[in-house]
Write a structure and sequence with these properties.
single chain; 285 residues; mainly alpha; ABC transporter involved in vitamin B12 uptake, BtuC
Amino acid sequence: MEALWIILCGSLIAISCGLLGSFLVLRKMAMVGDAISHAVLPGIVLAYLFSGSRGSIPMLIGAAALGVLTTIIIELFYKKAKLQIDASIGITFTWLFAIGIILISLFAGQVDLDQDCVLYGEIAYVPLDLLYWGDLNLGPRTLWVASAMLLLILLIVIRGYKGLFLTTFNQEYASALGISVGFWHYLLMSSVSLTTVISFESVGAILVVAFLIVPPATAYLLSNQLKHMLWLTVLFAVLSSIGGYFLAVLINGSIAGAMATVSGVLFCLVWGYTIIQKKKMMIEY
């Protein structure tokens, strides 16, 4: 039963991250998730200092606030300072992450926080954190949170598909149609921030970043249509979670690390397949 919870939780988070990551990959902003996962550290420390609690809600609020701030600062550097997007991301997350490290070192006696614990969760612990309604065991709390998060992401993607599609591929055309490019950009970035913050508490920052980038990048190799890419992303996300769990059991290693590894292996296999197909087409031509 524990295996089912872990695989299901990993799949739900992988799908949520993958769907949002598809738009990040197409917008050439794939590393935003990595930036957010590091930049939220000062938000977590400040949340503890203000609330005096290590509860999930204060930590989540602090992390989410810094996540949104991260996306705003990146956009300001990119639009106002005219920096390249990769430079904007690099400056923002290293700066905020460094501030978080300084805050921890300054308040180490007061804050019982370890940056490794904050940034790197462990999906193997998911079955241990159970949610109860009275005496009724409802299963892992993370599973309910991941399910609610996926429903929210699906609602945003399905209802906002046109806006996300147009602002991703042709912002000038979208503006000409009266579509607010800024609104859809910040909606996407806020969704990425919230998803990243909620997910890395349970599965770890490395796995969240892998799910944000690798399944969408794998799907991108196989399709030039957004809808097909999203469906393929879901497929590769689920395969990464299932394959990663059984790989971890086989080698008695980290489940999160194994899931990220399998996602990378799937990418390499698809990449190899596309190369072979291109060579065949060239020979036939």
